[in-house]
Amino acid sequence: GARALVLMAKETAQSSPEHLLQRAVAALNQQRPKEAEAIAGEVLKVHSRHPQALLIFSHALQMQGRAEDAIAALEPAARSEPHPQIETQLGVALRSAGRPEDALSWLERATKRTPPFPPAFYELGCLLATLKRHREAAAVLGRGRELAPMVPDFSVQLGHVLLALRDCAPAKVAFARAIEIAPNSPGALWGMGKAHQMLGENRLALDYFRRCLAHSPNDVGLWLNLGHCLLELGELEAGREWLRKAARRDPKGYSGALTTIVKSARGRFWLKPSTAAQFLRGQSPEPPKR
């Protein structure tokens, strides 16, 4: 309340910005963005362009869904002098605010700074991917991976971009690199499974999807992929059970299960989609064996 803010203001006068910002970072890490906003805000009252305080302050605002407020805090500083971290954070805020073209401009600017700032390449690559500019995204993420080879996120995102381009073989290379760095990465495991699945390598795909399931047990999309692979491998009852499970979870799961079971090579026994729909709802008997 008000008393706490008064005490915080008194402490600010007696503490160094670095000490206060350590507390603000701890508050962010503990999912207390309002507290982090207040602490960083007190530092900014004294040091209005303190870069770290601006970054923490804007991040706290974005955690609260206040992207426009974050933009207002960051933009003057970004325009006053080159600073890749602030430019990157501004790009993220602009993207969150539904202004992708403005975000693109700032993120491109951030990638041109010296020395290079790898997170700018990651954010730019992700934004280009959402804009369906996949070839450009792949180039940017590849450059980012060169700059930060031990950061698995670059390889994971690059793999997903390559999947969107249906370049499955290089996608597998990217996901394998990510798994080597982070063996339990759900994004890398799912991506490797999907790449194998798209190539018709369903047994290998199934192994990766099962590994991913241990980390993402409630992922409906993963259930659909498991069901598809099992159907293709002739494990019909196990495959249908995963599809029924997805169909019961939500409308998207039902739609995906229906599409999978009708289009599967092992699903040709369905004479028409309505029969498959009845089966998923538990309203019809088992289909005839092939």
Q: In percent, how much strand structure appears in the residues?
A: under 5%
Give the helix level as a range of percent.
over 70%
* Main sheet characteristics: none
Tell me the total number of β-strands: 0
Q: Poorly predicted ranges (pLDDT <50, ≥5 residues)?
A: 267-271
Mean pLDDT: 89
List SSEs in N-to-C order: HHHHHHHHHHHHHHHHH
Alpha carbon gap, first and last residue: 70 Å
Q: Compute the CA-based radius of gyration.
A: 24 Å
Number of H/I helices = 17
Shape: elongated
Structural class: mainly alpha
Can you describe what's shown?
With 290 residues, this protein is mostly helical. 76% of the residues lie in helices and 0% in strands. The protein has 17 helices and no strands. It has helices at 2-14, 17-29, 33-46, 51-63, 67-80, 84-96, 100-111, 118-130, 134-147, 152-164, 168-181, 186-198, 202-213, 220-232, 236-249, 251-263, 273-280. Helix 1 (2-14) packs across helix 3 and helix 10 runs antiparallel to helix 11 (168-181). The radius of gyration is 24 Å and the shape is elongated. The model is unreliable at 267-271 (pLDDT under 50).
Q: Keywords for this structure?
A:
mainly alpha; 76% helix; elongated
Provide a quick synopsis of the model.
By secondary structure, this protein is mostly helical. It is built from 17 helices and no strands.
